[in-house]
Every structure is written in structure tokens, then in C-alpha cells.
């Protein structure tokens, strides 16, 4: 796009001063059509989003859908979306990739830049007028507006045709760039740090090679009548840029941040916005916000999840009716540490606000930071107000689903500085006094393990099939409910097994527990004597598989170990069938019990800083405090297991525990939620399956200093994703064959700011390293910090001689990374904030 066109559009958008108020015309009542606005990385298996788009287009029999490829650099994503539509039942003759573009595509013989003239084609406009749905693929949103707008900023014939069918009842949809173009105010570049710095640009591109980028705003196509839309919201941490844009453009409407693999469904006739998909939509209200210099106060943040609805005109939220209010009934009661980096539990915005603030009775305020490598940035303060509320329920099995209402955010400029202090925690650090006898595994073991990291989705077919297939044909399966406080999760897992084809009569919930369950007339605490019941021990020998549900892992060991730590009769029977070929599995607490050393409590920061404790205060200690260890059941003899690894940021506590109790030749393993580590004892290999990853910690070359117990150097970190394999004997990783090596072919080339909190892009540990280091040619090391009350840690992740990254697509257009051999140093620091 020529610069004079950009200038013209900016004048149209902001007026001659760049600050005048801009509002969309509220004529949605005259629009019979609907919108499906997806936030990016739309999984091909995300049936809810695809089905909604198809239904609104008239259903599989009546739909006539046009795909606009203009945003992309090739036709690949357009063909992929067409293939997905066909997989959901749309006829091939009913889907067409439309010749709309202003630039050439790679991988084709034709010069698609010639398609620019098609925007004024009566023939193409007529074809569009016969369609019931239009989809804009992702890429560069400016390429869409360049293809569909005239040089003077007015609509082309093609765009007029799209508007006509939209007004008459067609559905318009799009992902990434195809979402950004939906509103009048279109964000085309920039990030949260640029937004909080209140740096805006009228250049064609923000400087994406720097640590942060100014926010670029241009005129969109205006299909969405109710405010500003941003996308990749949670994954790329765009709260700052959306809030700054909303404040600058002064809309009377709300601003919406759509997470990846999620869509907002806009019904213009009903004036409603509904959420579908696998994450959420942030809703920002800045009408009462104040900006004084670089300070911002009173940004109102709500967060909608699947099934929630907002009435755009009245601003009334309706939350999914199976959710319970958290206000006055908060589940958690812990003091949250500031969200300051990859060691912060619940590191994404939505999760941090849900667990650490809204559903937490102990606090009314939570903090995070965002800054560059010079320490120049901002402190973010999130607070409860009188109208703050949360709504909690389960989704897709045992996965928490939160919706949030009216959290208040303030932003203050700060400068953060760090000074290395190796002996900082020397006096307060408590070494572990824990000892555990190794259970070991007999020389010939035919069994296998499926160890899930928690929050296992009922739809996670890959994990369920890994468990069921190893149990054999028509398997008999026993479920151990001991970890839970009720039988609800056991019945839910039984239902899931039935869904995947296991006969109901083949599944038993075993009477193994050490405490009473709520919601039942029976006193299950009496089951504690069943551990040595010969009849139950004999019954166990008939099973092909045993599954341990989640909860508190100490309740499992209490239910199965004798007082002296020896195996009960029931536990010995479980060992016997495991030895003979049975599969044992478990999730969350059911994963923690698998190794000899069982991590039962503690947080990453506190364990690195304070070491270990011999006391345990039940589930409260799951959210923080020094590490607490107990004897596990030892089914996995190849290292220490930790779970909820990504969401609860347990890298630090696993490293400290492995340093204290791991063997020289063993790795340690952190399993993400909705993911499983599968061990086949016969082959001696482990495989990752599911939607997250398995972090593999290697301390074999790590350096420790006696006078600096919290300092670590030369840790090796690898990240296995679905299909990746590790040979336990050779220690060789085999990465899924469809993935490409990133080494010397890195896609990104930018200076990565430190991971500093919930507004750091790609916030989870594995994604942060993948995007910012492994697949980034501009960086050989990246940093993250974790601190509280003037003390903390500097984490330096760096490329070494053995570092390799691997990239592929999974489930549609979702980036799927693995990496091996990333080097890590952890060094104590003092922290000054001014």
C-alpha cells in the first residue's frame, strides 16, 4: 500500500490531529448476517467453531462458501480451510477459493498480483452475491484491505458484494488477519509494551525486529459494529496494545481480544456476542479509564469462555448456566506471588486472574510486570472491585473453565534492575531431609505407563487411546478414586472410557481410599483397611489396567502403603499385574505417585529460594511454599515426575528436587496439562502424547556451589511434543518425522524482551523458548526473572552446541515446536524497582 493511501486512511480514522473520536455506525439491526471471528491457530478438530460457521452459512446442504486468500503468502491455508470444511460435510462444489489478492503467492505459476483488478469485476461480484458465507484466511490484514478497497479508501465492487450478502443474511468469518479486518479500527502491528509506552505509528509496518513495536492502527472493513477486535490475544499477550488502542480511539463501545482456537459469534439481529471454542474472549471497557502520562487507571477487564454471551447494546453478560459464582465461595486461599516470568503459576492472563485473584479469598490485588532488557517498563496492578465476580465450571472433562467479570487494571511506569547475588538465599535455604527406598522394576517388565499431567480433556482421544490400546482387547479396568474428595472424577473417567468403546461392565471403581468422600452416604474412610484385604488383592489380579484419578497424591500413598512404607497386599497385586503386562495410568496426583520420589507440594520460586519442608498442609501447599516430598509408588524408575507443569510453572521445584534426589544418569520429567508421558518397559522408550508437552530436565552436566544452594549452571532442557520419543538407554531423542529442523533455518529474527509476566508473548515455558530462542536467529540467549520483595532469580536460556529446534503444524494451522539441549542457568539476584 502506498504511503499516501495510509495517510488518507489515518485521516479518515483519527481526523487531522490523530486523536478525534471514531465510532462505527450502529446499524446492526439492518444486518441480517452474522460473524464468526476466530483468534488464530484454529484447530481442524475444533468442531464447535467449524460447525457454527457452516450452520450459519445454511448447513452442509445449502452452504455456498467463498474463501478469500488475500492475507496469506500462499494458497496453502485456503486449501487447508477448504479441506476442513469438506471434512465437516460441506460439498466440494459448494466451496470456492476466490481470486482476491493484490500480491503474488509463492508456490504457484500464476502471478496473483494481477487479481487486484478482480476487485472491480462484475462477474466476481455476481458470484459472491450467490454465496451464503465468506471466510478470510490469516496472514497480513493490510493485504486484505489493499485487495478490497480502492485507492481513495472506498469500497470496491467485490467488497460491496460482500456487504450486500452480509446485510441479506450471509455469514462472514475469518481468522487472525481475517479477524483483525472485522472492525472499523484495525490493529495491524505492535505489542503490549509499545501500547503501554503509547507509541503509535503511521508507517506501513511496526518495527518487529526490536524488543517491542509501536502500535499500528488503520481502517478496517467495519463488519463488526460493536467495537475493536484483536486476535492471538492470550498467546501473544496483547492486552496492552488493545487497551492503549481503545483509549486512544475513544470508542463508546467495548474492545475484544479473541484467544487462539476460539471464536466470537456475532448475531446482529439479536445484538449478541457469544463465545465458542477452546479458550476465551477478553472484553475491555475503557470508558472510565484515565491516562496521565504513561499511567493508566481503571481499565475494566472481563473474560468470556465457551457458551458465554454478551448483549452488545446493554452490556449484560450471560454466563454458561452450569457455572457457579466464585464471589463469596472462593476455592483458593493463598497469597499469590507477582507474575514475573516463566516460574509464575498460571502464567497466562486469564489463568492468573482466575486462580490468583478472582477465585482466591486471600487477596484483592495481584501484580505483574512488563519491561525490556534495560528494565524499562510497567507494573500492572489487577484489583477486585465491588462488581468483580468469577464463574467456574468444568469443560471437556476435568478441565477448569473460568469466566471473569469486571477486574480493574492500572498500569504504572517502572524501572527494574537486577544485581547478581549468588549467596542470597544461603541462610534461609533448607536442604531436603527426605529419604526414600527405591522400588525398582524387575528385570523383565512387560507393563506400560500412561502418565497424564492433569486437566485431561475428555476429547483428548490420543491419550485415551494410548491407555486403552495398551490394556488389550475388551480390557478390564479398575479406577482408584483415593486422591479425590469425591467420586465425581472417577465416574467421569469411567464415562470417558465408555465413550471410547470400553464396555461399562468392564470398568470398576475400586474401594481404595483413606478418607471419606463428600456427596455419598457411605463413609469411605473405612476403606483404608481394604489395602490389605486378600479378596480385593485377588480381584486386582483380574485387571488389565489401573487408573489413578487426580486430587491429593498423599491420599493415594496413604491408601496403598503400609504404615512402615511397605507395599500393602493390594499394591503388591497392582505391581504383579504391571510386571505381567498391565498398563497403569493416572492424572495429576495419579501422575505424581508414579516415581520413587513424590513431589507433593511447593512452588518453583519458594523451593528454589527456601528449599524443602517436612510439614504438609494439604492442598493449600499445591500453590506455593517450599518443596514437600514423600515416598511415591515407584512404577516409573527412570527419574522424578512432576505434573501441571505448564500451568503451575513447576520448572524450579523439579530442578531443585532432581538436584537433591535425582541420579546422575537420570532425567526428570515435567508433564503439561492435557498431555501424557507413555512408558513402554519392553522397548525402554517414552513417548509424548496429547496437546501439550513433556519437559525433560538433564542435570548430568549441571554445576552447583556449596555456598550458593539456589544457583545452578549448565542445566539441559528439552521439550517433547506429541509423537516425539526418548530412548531411555541411549538418551537419544527422536522428533516426529514431519517436523523440520529450525537450526540455521530460523523463521524469526527479532530481539526478544525478557519474559516478565502475564503480558509476555508465548508465555508458557516451552512456547517462550521455541519462539524467542530456538526458532529466532537474532538471539543466542533469552532471559526470564522471578522475584518477590526485592529478591529473586535470573533465568538465562541459551543455545549451545547441542541445541536443536523443530517445527511443524498440528491440528490445522497450529505451530507445533519441539526442542532439545537448551542450556539454562539460574542465578539469585537482588531486585530494585523504581
UniProtKB/TrEMBL annotation:
GO terms for biological process: proteolysis. Its EC number is 3.4.15.6. Gene3D superfamilies: 3.40.50.880. CDD domains: GAT1_cyanophycinase (cd03145). Residues 1-24 form the signal peptide. It catalyses: [L-4-(L-arginin-2-N-yl)aspartate](n) + H2O = [L-4-(L-arginin-2-N-yl)aspartate](n-1) + L-4-(L-arginin-2-N-yl)aspartate. Keywords: Hydrolase, Protease, Serine protease, Signal. GO terms for molecular function: peptidyl-dipeptidase activity; serine-type peptidase activity. It is an enzyme of class 3 (hydrolase). The keyword GTP-binding does not apply. PANTHER family: CYANOPHYCINASE. Belongs to the peptidase S51 family. This is Cyanophycinase.
Amino acid at each position: 500500500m502506498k504511503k499516501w493511501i495510509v495517510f488518507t486512511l489515518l485521516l479518515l480514522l483519527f481526523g487531522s490531529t490523530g486523536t478525534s473520536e471514531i465510532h462505527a455506525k450502529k446499524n446492526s439491526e439492518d444486518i441480517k448476517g452474522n460473524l464468526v471471528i476466530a483468534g488464530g491457530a484454529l484447530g481442524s478438530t475444533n468442531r464447535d467453531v467449524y460447525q457454527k460457521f457452516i450452520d450459519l452459512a445454511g448447513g452442509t446442504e445449502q452452504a455456498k462458501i467463498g474463501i478469500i486468500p488475500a492475507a496469506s503468502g500462499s494458497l496453502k491455508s485456503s486449501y487447508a480451510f477448504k479441506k476442513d470444511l469438506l471434512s465437516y460435510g460441506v460439498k466440494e462444489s459448494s466451496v470456492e477459493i476466490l481470486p482476491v489478492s493484490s500480491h503474488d503467492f509463492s508456490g504457484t505459476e500464476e502471478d496473483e498480483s494481477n487479481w487486484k483488478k478482480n476487485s472491480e469485476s462484475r462477474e466476481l461480484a455476481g458470484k459472491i452475491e450467490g454465496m451464503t458465507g465468506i471466510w478470510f484466511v490469516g496472514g497480513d490484514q493490510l493485504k486484505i484491505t489493499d485487495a478490497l478497497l480502492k485507492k481513495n479508501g472506498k469500497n470496491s465492487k467485490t467488497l460491496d458484494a460482500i456487504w450486500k450478502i452480509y446485510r441479506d443474511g450471509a455469514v462472514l468469518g475469518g481468522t487472525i488477519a481475517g479477524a483483525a479486518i472485522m472492525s472499523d479500527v484495525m490493529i495491524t502491528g505492535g505489542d503490549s509494551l509499545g501500547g503501554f509506552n503509547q507509541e503509535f505509528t503511521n508507517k506501513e509496518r511496526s518495527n518487529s525486529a526490536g524488543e517491542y513495536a509501536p502500535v499500528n492502527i488503520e481502517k478496517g472493513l467495519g463488519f463488526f459494529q460493536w467495537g475493536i477486535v484483536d486476535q492471538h490475544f492470550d498467546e501473544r499477550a496483547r492486552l496492552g496494545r488493545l487497551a492503549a488502542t481503545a483509549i486512544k480511539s475513544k470508542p463508546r463501545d467495548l474492545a475484544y481480544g479473541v484467544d487462539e482456537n476460539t471464536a466470537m459469534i456475532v448475531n446482529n439481529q439479536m445484538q449478541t456476542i457469544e463465545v465458542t471454542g477452546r479458550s476465551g474472549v477478553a472484553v475491555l471497557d475503557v470508558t472510565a479509564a484515565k491516562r496521565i502520562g504513561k499511567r493508566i487507571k481503571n481499565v475494566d477487564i472481563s473474560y468470556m469462555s465457551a457458551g458465554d454471551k454478551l448483549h452488545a447494546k446493554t452490556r449484560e453478560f450471560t454466563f454458561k448456566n452450569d457455572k457457579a459464582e466464585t464471589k463469596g465461595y472462593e476455592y483458593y486461599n493463598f497469597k499469590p506471588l507477582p507474575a514475573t516470568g516463566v516460574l509464575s503459576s498460571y502464567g497466562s492472563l486469564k489463568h492468573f486472574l482466575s486462580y490468583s485473584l478472582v477465585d482466591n479469598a486471600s487477596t484483592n490485588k495481584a501484580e505483574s510486570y512488563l519491561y525490556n532488557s534495560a528494565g524499562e517498563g510497567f507494573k500492572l496492578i489487577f484489583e477486585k472491585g465491588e462488581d468483580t465476580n468469577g464463574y467456574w465450571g468444568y469443560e471437556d472433562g476435568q478441565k477448569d473453565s473460568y469466566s471473569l467479570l469486571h477486574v480493574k487494571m492500572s498500569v504504572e511506569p517502572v524501572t527494574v534492575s537486577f544485581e547478581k547475588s549468588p549467596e542470597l538465599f544461603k541462610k534461609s535455604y533448607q536442604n531436603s531431609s527426605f529419604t526414600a527406598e527405591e522400588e525398582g522394576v524387575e528385570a523383565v517388565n512387560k507393563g506400560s505407563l500412561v502418565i497424564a499431567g492433569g486437566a485431561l480433556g475428555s476429547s483428548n482421544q490420543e491419550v485415551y487411546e494410548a491407555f486403552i490400546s495398551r490394556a488389550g482387547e475388551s480390557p478390564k479396568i479398575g479406577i482408584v478414586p483415593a486422591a479425590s474428595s469425591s467420586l465425581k472424577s472417577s465416574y467421569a473417567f469411567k464415562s470417558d472410557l465408555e465413550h471410547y468403546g470400553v464396555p461399562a461392565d468392564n470398568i470398576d471403581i475400586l474401594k481404595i481410599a483413606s478418607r471419606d468422600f463428600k456427596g455419598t452416604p457411605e463413609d469411605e474412610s473405612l476403606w483404608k483397611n481394604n489395602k490389605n484385604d486378600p479378596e480385593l488383592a485377588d480381584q486386582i489380579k483380574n485387571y488389565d489396567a489401573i487408573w489413578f484419578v487426580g486430587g491429593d497424591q498423599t491420599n493415594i500413598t496413604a491408601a496403598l502403603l503400609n504404615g512402615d512404607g511397605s507395599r500393602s497386599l493390594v499394591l503388591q497385586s497392582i505391581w504383579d499385574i504391571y510386571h505381567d503386562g498391565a498398563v497403569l495410568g493416572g492424572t495429576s496426583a495419579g501422575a505424581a505417585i508414579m516415581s520413587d520420589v513424590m513431589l507433593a507440594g511447593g512452588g518453583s520460586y519458594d523451593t528454589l529460594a527456601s528449599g524443602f519442608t517436612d510439614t504438609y498442609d494439604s492442598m493449600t501447599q499445591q500453590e506455593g511454599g517450599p518443596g514437600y516430598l514423600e515416598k511415591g509408588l515407584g512404577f516409573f524408575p527412570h527419574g522424578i515426575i512432576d505434573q501441571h507443569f505448564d500451568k503451575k510453572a513447576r520448572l524450579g521445584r523439579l530442578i531443585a528436587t532432581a538436584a537433591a534426589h535425582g541420579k546422575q544418569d537420570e532425567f526428570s520429567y515435567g508433564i503439561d496439562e492435557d498431555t501424557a508421558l507413555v512408558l513402554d518397559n519392553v522397548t525402554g522408550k517414552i513417548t509424548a502424547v496429547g496437546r501439550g508437552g513433556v519437559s525433560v530436565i538433564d542435570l548430568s552436566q549441571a554445576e552447583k556451589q556449596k555456598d550458593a544452594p539456589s544457583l545452578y549452571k549448565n542445566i539441559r532442557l528439552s521439550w517433547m511434543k506429541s509423537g516425539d520419543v526418548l530412548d531411555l538407554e541411549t538418551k537419544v531423542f527422536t522428533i516426529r518425522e514431519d517436523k523440520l529442523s529450525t537450526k540455521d533455518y530460523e523463521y524469526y529474527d527479532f530481539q526478544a524482551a525478557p519474559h516478565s509476566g502475564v503480558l509476555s508473548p508465548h508465555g508458557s515455558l516451552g512456547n517462550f523458548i521455541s519462539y524467542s530462542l530456538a526458532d529466532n536467529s537474532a538471539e543466542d540467549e533469552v532471559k526470564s526473572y522471578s522475584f518477590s520483595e526485592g529478591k529473586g532469580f535470573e533465568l538465562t536460556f541459551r543455545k549451545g552446541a547441542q541445541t536443536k529446534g523443530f517445527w511443524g503444524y498440528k491440528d490445522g494451522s497450529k505451530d507445533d515446536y519441539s526442542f532439545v539441549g537448551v542450556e539454562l542457568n539460574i542465578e539469585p539476584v537482588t531486585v530494585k524497582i523504581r
